[in-house]
Amino acid sequence: LLADIYKFLGDSLFDVDERLQAHRTALALRETSLGAEPENISENAAAASLYQRIGTIYSDKAAGSKKPDDFRAALENFNKSLAIYQALQKYEPNNSRHRRNFADIT
User: Of 10, 36, 84, 97, which one has the fewest beta carbons inside 10 Å?
Assistant: First the structure.
């Protein structure tokens, strides 16, 4: 899947802006897939992971820049990831991966 390629690209890049762009592209592709299948658990989990990655990038940027927009972007992306992981726990309450990912954010 093309979204996976962009995610792996984003994970391997050193430049923060390029990493952010690769993850945003991957997320846009995932969101397109979710438009067709909004209850697809795998796609939702992948989107939550990307929101978490994007939030982490903004959090790292904010730590250095102290820019309020970076802090807001980090919080916004972490909140989106958290909401998806909460929903996934309802669909699959015994899935330890969803619980662990939820705990990583909170």
Answer: 36
Per the structure block, which two tokens stand in for 2? 């093309």
Dump pLDDT digits (tens) for 20-45: 999 999 999 999 999 999 999 999 99
Buried b or exposed e, range 36-55, using 16+ CB within 10 angstroms: eeeeeeebbbbbbbbbbbbb
pLDDT at 64: 87
User: Is residue 15 helix, strand or coil?
Assistant: coil
> By the 8 A CB rule, do 88 and 44 touch?
yes
Which strand (E) or helix (H) includes residue 39?
A: none
Helix 41-65 and helix 2-12, axial crossing angle in degrees, nearest 10 = 30
Question: Are 82 and 105 in contact, with CB atoms under 8 Å apart?
Answer: yes
pLDDT digits (tens, 9 = 90+) for 89-99: 888 888 888 77
